[in-house]
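Figure 3 (text version): structure tokens given as input.
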């Protein structure tokens, strides 16, 4: 396995551009959990890993701006979904790989993120997605930036499933056990209250 210090630099995209329907329309990245906004948990985790931290946000840009090197937003105003955020991130990423994660996964750890990067390095040209048990997690992925034009082409053709595009590109899995607590997706008020490490 490639030593951590020899991993190619990566850009990192935090997805915080959603409508937050399950949260009553609130800006999910700015919802407080354990004393700070969800986005800050991931910003603290990822900041040491990159000099190109990108946040996809469609509201409250002034609050996100100090946390990122770049902000991107959808070119449609109707919250078209995470594919739009990934597409925008790929278009501006400064490094060979784009590591992607949603803002409502504050229990991710460095080991998991480095696992995605190691797997991408071991499978040149292939996107890598987390697979939890038998369930793919396409918003936890590492994408070679060279595939940006494919994402753009698929978007123009009406594709809105990141998993389908990555599958067409020969995506490989980073396998995790079903119920891995690091992958807890805190996308409802109840989960924000109930989840435990």
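Below: residues designed for each position.
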């Amino acid at each position: 396995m490639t030593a951590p210090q020899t991993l190619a630099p990566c850009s990192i995209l935090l997805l915080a551009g959603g409508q937050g329907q399950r949260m009553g329309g609130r800006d999910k990245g700015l919802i407080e959990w354990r004393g700070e906004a969800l986005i800050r948990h991931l910003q603290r985790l990822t900041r040491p890993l990159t000099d190109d931290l990108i946040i996809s946000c469609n509201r409250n840009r002034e609050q996100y701006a100090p946390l990122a090197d770049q902000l991107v937003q959808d070119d449609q105003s109707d919250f078209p979904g995470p594919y739009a955020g990934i597409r925008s991130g790929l278009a501006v990423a400064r490094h060979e790989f784009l590591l992607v994660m949603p803002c409502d996964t504050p229990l991710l750890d460095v080991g998991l993120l480095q696992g995605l990067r190691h797997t991408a390095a071991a499978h040149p040209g292939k996107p890598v997605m987390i697979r939890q048990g038998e369930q793919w997690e396409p918003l936890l992925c590492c994408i070679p930036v060279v595939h940006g034009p494919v994402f753009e082409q698929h978007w123009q053709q009406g594709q809105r499933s990141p998993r389908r595009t990555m599958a067409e590109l020969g995506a490989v899995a980073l396998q995790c056990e079903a119920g891995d607590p690091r992958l807890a997706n805190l996308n409802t008020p109840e989960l924000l209250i109930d989840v435990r490490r």
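The longest strand covers residues 135-144.
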